């Protein structure tokens, strides 16, 4: 009996980037008892700053809240964009080459938000993703631009909206006994770790009960 923790994210989201250390911390601490996975949840124009200046203002705010010694870079912003498919589709496409961990989406997030690379351009996103994954950029790019990859990204985005939350990242923790916890907009590990501990303790209790009583009477 293992927990599943799903990280709904958009590669271009600053808060998803700020949450990377917490995500890594949780994976390291609970990886032997929790199955970690990520899903794309595309941001739309309602959640995207309209200009680079707006973006930089939000970066200053979030950087202060996270006590960051470095401000995020807004050089990638394309004013007026309704969504950013390229970096998200590249990260999703890497799954089909066996890269199911976090290395591609984290590399893309870091390249855009820390280094200012224009990862919203398909060719740049493919180069960054391919380097992280050890793949040929042209192969990754070709696959990322297929209708099947876009369909998967939109399907996982629809799953995110079905949760009736609005913030990225959103973390969903499910247990095999049917319990669920949802954290929307959190970027620090402590509350997530406390919940994982409580849910894991419940699983221990259920195992103990099964050992003493077995299956319920018919």
Could you explain the architecture of this structure?
By secondary structure, this protein is α+β, with helices and mostly antiparallel strands. The chain has a single domain, classed as Glutaredoxin, CATH 3.40.30. The protein is built from 9 helices and 4 strands. The chain has a 4-stranded mixed β-sheet with strand order 2-1-3-4. Strand 3 and strand 4 form a beta hairpin. Helix 4 packs across helix 7, helix 4 packs across helix 8 and helix 5 packs across helix 6. It is globular and about 60 Å long. The two termini are 23 Å apart. The model has no long low-confidence stretch (mean pLDDT 94).
What is the element layout, followed by pairings?
Elements: E1 3-9, H1 14-18, H2 20-30, E2 34-40, H3 52-65, H4 85-94, H5 103-113, H6 122-133, H7 137-144, H8 147-162, E3 170-174, E4 180-184, H9 189-213
Parallel strand pairs: 1-2
Antiparallel strand pairs: 1-3, 3-4
Helix pairs in contact: 2-9, 4-5, 4-6, 4-7, 4-8, 5-6, 6-7
List keywords for this structure.
alpha+beta; about 220 residues; Glutaredoxin
Q: What is the count of distinct domains?
A: 1
Poorly predicted ranges:
none
Overall shape: globular
Total of helices: 9
- Helical amount among residues, as a percent range? 40-55%
Largest sheet: 4 strands, mixed
Estimated structural class: alpha+beta
Task: Encode the helix/strand succession as letters.
Answer: EHHEHHHHHHEEH
- Overall pLDDT score: 94
CATH class: Alpha Beta
Q: What order do the strands of the largest sheet run in, or round the barrel if closed?
A: 2-1-3-4
The CATH homologous superfamily is named Glutaredoxin
- Kindly estimate the percentage of residues that lie in beta strands according to DSSP: 5-15%
Radius of gyration: 19 Å
Distance between the ends: 23 Å
The tally of strands reads 4
The CATH topology corresponds to Glutaredoxin
Write down the oligomeric state: single chain
Please state the second-level CATH architecture: 3-Layer(aba) Sandwich
